[in-house]
Design the sequence.
């Protein structure tokens, strides 16, 4: 496997870093071009969860994906939008433009976003299909829109959280209502989406996933949803290997089933 650390410049002339994990070419495989998984960790927009980064990327590598982890722009550098979403769109375009270099299929690019990263992924899909944003920042939807998306316990509606917004948070929130609530930005062109969350999530309320799934259904977008009875928030892969010290609830074999279910879903969707 080849690992690279790259710095890209987004459509708003802001720099960000990505970390690529590229499998070695094997001419004996039936699959000549690999799908790509773009991993967008959560972290409340002010940091990036390591548990939702490399462990996830490597897990998809084991199933034949090349992968990349995004270090998108955070609130320490200013308002989270539009730049975090533009970072995603720039990453998709970079790999489409360099598909041959990385031996990937440019029509099998998947984004996966966790928690706040789910909000970034959903916002990116909305902005990719928005005439206003595409004209302002100079891209075309077919260049930047991923083919599929996975959302893990995603923040969808900024108002649907289990605690009051911190004082001063309003200055960092976007004015566009479709960025405040990404369900409003769903269209028929939104990629088919796989959603998973725990019903007892105390941080990002389950109403986030329900609202997004309803919007997908209203716009005839294919979706698979897995809402687990228990899991709280931030269980990542639900494995002991991604469990934080003293957080035994994160070792959750039932909720961990989301990963294999996503592989089954992707196998069908990416044919």
Sequence:
């Amino acid at each position: 496997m080849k690992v690279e650390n790259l710095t890209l410049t987004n459509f708003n002339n802001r720099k960000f870093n990505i970390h690529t994990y590229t499998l070695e070419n094997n001419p004996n495989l039936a699959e000549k071009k690999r799908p790509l998984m773009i991993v967008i960790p959560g972290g409340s927009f002010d940091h990036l969860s390591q548990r939702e980064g490399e462990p996830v990327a490597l897990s998809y590598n084991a199933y034949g994906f090349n992968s990349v982890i995004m270090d998108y722009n955070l609130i320490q550098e200013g308002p989270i939008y539009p730049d975090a979403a533009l970072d995603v769109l720039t990453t998709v375009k970079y790999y489409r433009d360099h598909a041959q270099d990385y031996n990937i299929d440019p029509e099998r690019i998947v984004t996966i976003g966790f928690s706040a990263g789910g909000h970034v992924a959903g916002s990116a899909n909305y902005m990719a299909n928005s005439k206003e944003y595409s004209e302002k920042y100079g891209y075309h939807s077919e260049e930047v829109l991923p083919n599929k998306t996975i959302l893990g316990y995603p923040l969808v509606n900024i108002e649907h959280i289990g605690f009051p917004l911190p004082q001063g948070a309003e200055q960092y929130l976007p004015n566009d209502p479709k960025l405040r609530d990404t369900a409003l930005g769903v269209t028929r062109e939104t990629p088919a989406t796989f959603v998973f969350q725990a019903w007892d999530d105390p941080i990002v309320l389950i109403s986030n996933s329900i609202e997004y799934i309803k919007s997908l259904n209203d716009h005839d977008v294919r979706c698979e949803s897995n809402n687990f009875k228990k899991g709280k928030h931030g269980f990542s892969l639900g494995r002991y290997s991604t469990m934080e010290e003293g957080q035994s609830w994160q070792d959750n074999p039932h909720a961990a089933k989301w990963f294999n279910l996503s592989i089954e879903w992707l196998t069908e969707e990416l044919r």
In short: Residues 83-97 form the longest helix (15 residues). Residues 115 and 196 are 11 Å apart (CA to CA).
